[in-house]
Amino acid sequence: MIRIGLTGGIGAGKSTVARVLTERGAYLVDSDKIAREVVAPGTPGLERIVEAFGTGVLADDGSLDRPALAAIAFANEENRLTLNGITHPLIGARTTEMIGAAPADGIVLQDIPLLVEGGLAPLFHLVIIVHADVEERVRRLTGQRGMGEEDARARIAAQATEEQRRAVADVWIDNTGAPDDLEPVVGALWDDRLVPFEANIRSGTIAPAVAVDEPWGPDAQRLVARLWAVCGGLAATIECTSAADSSVRVVVPDADSAHKLAEPLREGGFPQAAAGSYGSADPFRPAAITMDVAAG
Ligand code: ADP
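# adenosine-5'-diphosphate complex -> structure
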């Protein structure tokens, strides 16, 4: 199984890209949809929101009155934290449940509008950013979606900047052009990268060294961040030793930690090459990881 994070600014075309990938066979975990489901009528989530904020947050039909809730929840920090304390664990549990139900060879696509803002990028095997110019996004939001222009611009301004998105993008899809332009780009991404990447993770195979036009280079810090997410507390230090050839050194406190990390590393997209050495399952991103046990 591979987990792909899909994000981008509002109106950029996340849902559109998600649809194309789902048609190819991706297993979609839509975070907006989950966020709505956990507070649907009759759920414990909605019950707890009413307990916390009163029946004023309910519409006449018993469903959540979102503008009313937003007015209360964003009135002060305490209310915001209370609301997040109710919804975040429910969303997390449902997300985990859905991922758990994905097939063993699934290409799991998580559509997360605030992936960059939440610092979640290192938790995925691959992050896809969908991009469109601001003016084009405003046109789409005010046109097809009927949003007011001021509202559209305020929402765009409240989200991550293009620079912040570029910093975590493994794949950058420009959707400023026509929707038809997406099909071949997303199709090639599926065939050439996602399918072999997933198969390599499952079989523990290091991707063959292909002529890569996009080595990690200055972006090696992304590789380091991803390794921290995989190794967690079992690593003492993780550092890039050569950005040019994506060499990273992981130091673990003892041989037991090294042993325990082999499986999480494989599942995280870094299969073992030999004792103390790991590579990358991503056909487009080589990595040379050495693992050393700290002296003394
Ligand atoms: P997001 O999920 O990122 O907010 P959507 O995929 O919902 O964005 O797209 C926003 C709006 O723009 C939708 O109405 C969609 O149909 C439209 N759209 C998406 N891609 C394009 C495109 N390439 N050209 C024109 N309109 C598009």
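# post-check
The mean pLDDT is 94.
DSSP finds eleven helices and ten strands in the chain.
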